[in-house]
Amino acid sequence: MWTESLPFAKRFAHMTKQDKLSNSFRNQPDDRGHFGQFGGRYVAETLMPLILDLEKHYRAAQADPTFAEEFDDLLEHYVGRPSPLYFAERLTDHVRKEAPEGKGAQIWFKRDELNHTGAHKINNCIGQILLAKRMGKKRIIAETGAGQHGVATATVCARFGLPCVIYMGATDIERQKPNIFRMRLLGAEVVPVTSGSATLKDAMNDALRDWVTNVHDTFYIIGTAAGPHPYPELVRDFQSVIGREAREQMLERTGRLPDMLVAAIGGGSNAIGLFHPFLDDPDVEMLGIEAAGHGLEKEHAASLAGGKPGILHGNKTYLLQDEDGQIDEAHSISAGLDYPGIGPEHSWLKESGRVRYDSVTDTEALEAFQLLCGTEGIIPALEPSHAIAAVAREAVKMDKDQIILANLCGRGDKDIFTVAEALGTEI
Amino acid sequence: MTRLSSSFPTDRAALITFVTGGDPTAADTGAILDALVEGGADIIELGMPFTDPMADGPAIQAANIRSLSAGTKTADLFNIATDFRERHPTVPLVLMGYANPMTIRGADWFADACIDAGVDGVICVDIPVEEDDSLGDSLRAKDVAVIRLATPTTDAARLPDILKNASGFLYYVSVAGITGLQQAAQASIQEAVSRLKAGTDLPVAVGFGVRTPEQAADIGRVADGVVVGSAIVEIIAEHGADAPPHVKAYVKSLSDAIRSAR
Fold first, then answer.
1. Helix, strand, or coil here: B228?
2. Counting Cβ atoms within 10 Å, is residue A281 exposed (0-12), middle (13-18) or buried (19+)?
3. From A49, A208, A215, residue closest to B155, measured CB to CB
4. CATH number at residue A170
5. Which of A20, A72, A240, A409 would bridge with A120, disulfide CB 3.0–4.6 Å?
6. Cβ–Cβ contacts within 10 Å for residue A256, how many?
7. B45 labelled catalytic
8. Are residue A107 and residue A45 in the same domain, yes or no?
């Protein structure tokens, strides 16, 4: 289905002249990598020539049908795409029991947790490693929070025979041990980062320090739709396979588009991947869910709800920060959402009003995690557990004949230790 | 004639020294800046601490953390600058740091604060020419120098864009990397400086990884300025509030070497 050959440039480049002129939500960023006031290229001069070069190679790849063919082929036969679109009947019934008469939307999931390596992260890694190959780079680096992007990066490095260094906060290493072992099995070197809060943002700092030191031969596979232009654009384009498939599958199965899309947001790559192909469908409502941690008035990771615009890690976007622009430490039970910023396109979509953003606490996410285990026999990662909590909250307000579609962006095997600890259970 | 343009002697290189403001505390920084001047520094770079200094090596990262842990605020930085300007009316003072603390209250606010505190120029690590309008326009409108960085990866095609609207001096980052770790080969520095000087009348200062008086003298023979940061910051890390005499002695060793280099 989706592998039928739409020309790559049509599929990945939403910046055709016609789009630029039209009143579209899919024509961002501009030539300088700006999504409205957000995005851009806020990097040290040493990196600037490199990211200009990356952009040049990405444009060439977009115009090259063989790049699209290789990407499509790997996604189908290596990653296992398309991922299923699944009607969660028992969860829907469960929600309807709590809903007023006539309410309780049909709940559907895009099953990206069934991908090779267990999350949506691999879609982007396949695209970026193909770019790295085109650019003749000899070494790959990446940052990781939950370890999912680290595992996906280590996986594609093993597949393509390139050495791989993964930067990971020491705090995250402690709570994601199984993923550390996976990365090492795959041949990656995992470097613990102890600076700052020893989580994702500090891992990104150290990855940037490595990159600036090894510019000549190193490709940085950024894991989320953030960082300097063109990363937010290319990560979105690679992840948009989620939304393109979901759109086609939903039309095929139900003959209509969903009424609402829901996705969890740390940096926001799974959300933008689901949302982007639907942005110009005016009847499709979209809801991005940030991590409210212990609560928005306490420690959390909801940069749109509790932050303000600033500049970090190569882009301008909403950040958790104090009045002097010092970055606050984020908190979420989910390591993958534990980041004080957000991809710049989400900041723009918030300000433009096209996407609504809300948040879910650690406790609510833990409840949703257990709910999905019990009703559908699916162990979700803690990241999409945030989306599932919001789905349950929203579905009761929607009519029975409406459809709510959430991205189940990762599976929960990696999180069972964290969940056991939170529930006071010994494994 | 601004303080910055008159601070580059014609018969020797200028010594440009960096410390992180508020390290170990905001109250200690004044005496450390005085020690830099007394040791023979020609230009002072005052680092604005930031939680995420991603272009810096371990020494300056640690200095940022010491400063912020001691409670240093942006207001303290400008107070340090204002006090310095009162004590040293002629010594140029440059703020160096990252985009977010500089732009969080708006670029105009920052430019005004620089003028009020007697700051002569600004080096922002993570605003390349492509994003110059985020800060540069406001600084130039107030005649605060926008000091640009050139690096080993800056190619001939890019250099004119960097030099356009640059002022004060051109800072050549001699290695692709973070602060304080490696030093470039003398031959490559010499080649880069002559390439840069062919494109600009601005003085060219060279930094990153300069530690010893011998290295400073070598660079001083070919460049208009020598920048030393991490090595000084390490002295502050070791001696804390008692650092000034040690800083002064070290800076004097650099200054003496530069003065006898040509």
1. strand
2. middle
3. A49
4. 3.40.50.1100
5. A409
6. 11
7. yes
8. no
Q: In what order do the strands lie in the sheet with B93-97?
A: B145-146, B121-124, B93-97, B43-47, B14-20, B225-228, B204-207, B170-173, B148-150
Rounded Cα distance between B4 and B12, Å, is 15
Query: How far off is chain A from B130, nearest CA to CA, in Å?
Result: 7
Residue A11 included in any domain: no
Length, in residues, of chain B: 262
Chain A residue numbers with beta carbons less than 8 Å from the beta carbon of B156 are none
Q: How many CB atoms lie within 10 A of CB B142?
A: 15
Tell me the ipTM for this assembly: 0.96
Q: Residue A65: which domain range?
A: 35-78+121-236
| pTM for this prediction | 0.95
User: Domain check: are A107 and A143 in the same one?
Assistant: no
Q: Which is nearest to B213 in space by CA: B39, B47, B57, B63?
A: B39
pLDDT in tens, A261-310: 999 999 999 999 999 999 999 999 999 999 999 999 999 999 999 999 99
Mutate to test the interface with B, among A31, A35, A42, A45 (most CBs of B within 10 A): A45
Q: Which residue in the list B28, B42, B45, B224 is annotated as catalytic? A: B45
CA angle, residues A340, A167, A238, in degrees to nearest 5 = 70
- B162–A44 C-beta distance less than 8 A: no
Domains of chain B: 2-259 (3.20.20.70)
**Is B56 among the catalytic positions?**
yes
Please list, in sequence order, all residues whose beta carbon lies within 8 angstroms of the beta carbon of residue A305, skipping any fewer than 6 positions away. Answer: A290, A292, A296, A357, A358, A359
Q: Do A249 and A345 belong together in one domain?
A: yes
Check: CB of residue B64 under 8 Å from CB of residue B56. yes
User: Is B126 near chain A, with CB under 8 Å?
Assistant: yes
pLDDT digits (tens, 9 = 90+) for A26-45: 999 999 999 999 999 999 99
Q: Do B126 and A314 touch (CB under 8 A)?
A: yes
| Two structure tokens written together for A387 | 């989306």
Pair (A342, A363) in one structural domain: yes
User: From residue A325, how far is each of B68, B102, B139 by CA, in Å?
Assistant: 12, 8, 19
One domain, residues A266 and A303: yes
Number of domains in chain A: 2
Residue A64 burial by Cβ neighbours in a 10 Å radius (0-12, 13-18, 19+): middle
Query: Same structural domain for residues A73 and A89?
Result: no
Please give the pLDDT value at position A3.
Answer: 42
Cα pseudo-dihedral B141, B147, B153, B156, rounded to 10: 60
CA-based nearest residue to A246, from A108, A78, A110, A406: A110
Q: Which helix (H) or strand (E) holds A376?
A: helix A362-376
Of the candidates B23, B42, B56, B218, the residue annotated as catalytic is: B56
pLDDT in tens, B180-236: 878 888 999 999 999 999 999 999 999 998 999 999 999 999 999 999 999 999 999
First to last CA, chain B: 25
Q: Give the number of other Cβ atoms within 10 Å of residue A377's Cβ.
A: 8
